[in-house]
Design a protein that fits this description.
Number of strands: 14
Largest sheet: 4 strands, mixed
Radius of gyration: 22 Å
Distance between the termini: 64 Å
Strand order of the largest sheet: 1-9-10-8
Length: 385
């Protein structure tokens, strides 16, 4: 007789967010230690670290890592990507750093993009692709700046380039023919994967079942409590298959259902060990978070767990902004208490507070002094060379 799934365990949003903070390693000061080894350890645990082009303060991939590694240095990420080759770049829900040991789970997607390129790449001709691939094979790693013989074209998008070769390089990257071997700011160098990683034999692509297991396990590890939306963030077509996998694990009792107060009909699940009593983080621990931090990027989940609705207003007209162009949520203990719009004035060596917004239980009397100390540390990180 098949075993019945266990009854849901009801928990409060406060308990849920403590579990999530522990899974995100935001409940302690230096969860991954220090030194260069901490960077790949953090990427491995989180599963991915998002990359973004906005440079008002330090770019989000460095910011996310610094939040969890107080002595983080930008050179550590370069070492992981270009020297140790323990992380690589590819698309998760956005462009991100991913552990190299997980590369085989992305090979099927590379094959799909190779066989059916997105419409963004319709302008890339076979000749464009042969040109860039031939140069990389012959001359080694290649960046768009190394290409000076393109016949320039008009841009068809604000983020596009006038060089046709740029889109050809991107198509080769998304299809797995090239990998990004180094990044200087937002300038990427592309290389043959077999040459960059030193493969004698390329890794075997994961099956779809293995990919599903990987996605669920990654979410359980880095989120603690999961929902279909949180596992399949911006990947809705996989929801039915992930749901089936969750049902299988429920029958095996490796997952248990969780009801979070205020979640309505939205279902959540966790591994039993994650539901052990979780102490509150240090009430004095302050984290200034990137709006692209894994804790912040899923807005509905953030609202449920923290009662905080983050507004990302970089693309909102100035007169309609409520919190500012690039407001950063501030986590104190297990509460988000402020959202501060910051800008790094690198020419004058200062961090400018454009707008300070108190949210939730935040107040000047309780929190301002500790946040100002954290802002000084954040300023030093911004201005390090």
């Amino acid at each position: 007789m098949p075993r019945r799934p266990p009854k849901p365990l009801s928990i409060s949003p406060s308990q849920a967010r403590r579990i999530w903070l522990r899974a995100q390693r935001l409940d302690t000061l230096a969860p991954f230690g220090d030194g260069s080894e901490a960077t790949p350890a953090a990427v491995d645990h989180l599963g991915y670290v998002q990359i973004d082009t906005i440079n008002v303060v330090e770019r989000c991939h460095h910011h996310i890592l610094w939040t969890r590694i107080p002595d983080y240095q930008r050179a550590h990420l370069r070492q992981a990507q270009s020297i140790d080759k323990s992380v690589f770049e590819y698309w998760t829900h956005a462009l991100a750093y991913v552990p190299t040991q997980d590369l085989r789970f992305f090979l099927p997607e590379m094959k799909r993009r190779r066989e059916n390129p997105p419409s963004w790449f319709n302008s890339v001709t076979n000749e464009d692709l042969r040109k860039v691939m031939g140069r990389v094979r012959r001359d080694g790693a290649l960046s768009i700046r190394d290409i000076d013989d393109d016949v320039l074209i008009e841009k068809d998008h604000a983020w596009a380039s006038r060089k046709p070769s740029k889109r050809a390089l991107q198509l080769a990257f998304f299809s797995g023919a090239l990998t990004i071997c180094e990044r200087a700011g937002m300038l990427k160098s592309y290389e043959l994967p077999e040459r960059h990683f030193g493969w004698e034999r390329a890794p075997r692509p994961a099956t779809e079942k293995q990919v599903l297991d990987y996605l669920l396990d990654r979410a359980l590890r880095s989120q603690g409590i999961v929902s279909l939306d949180s596992v399949c963030h911006l990947d809705a077509p996989r929801k039915p298959a992930i749901r089936e996998l969750i049902e299988t694990r429920l029958r095996r009792r490796t997952l248990v259902p969780v009801t979070i107060e205020g979640a309505g009909k939205q279902e959540h699940w966790a591994q039993p060990a994650m539901l052990e009593p979780t102490p509150a983080p240090d009430a004095e621990l302050v984290h200034i978070l990137s709006p692209f931090d894994p804790l912040i990027i899923q807005r509905k989940r953030l609202k449920l767990f923290f009662g905080y609705d983050h507004l990302f207003e970089a693309y909102v007209p100035k007169e309609k902004r409520a919190m500012g162009y690039f407001a950063l949520p501030v986590l104190v203990g297990d509460e988000i208490v402020a959202a501060i719009d910051l800008k790094a004035d690198r020419a004058n060596g200062t961090l400018l507070v454009q707008q300070w917004n108190w949210v939730g239980k935040g107040s000047p009397e309780r929190h301002k002094a500790a946040i100002e100390d954290a802002l000084h540390r954040f300023e030093r990180f911004q201005l390090e060379t």
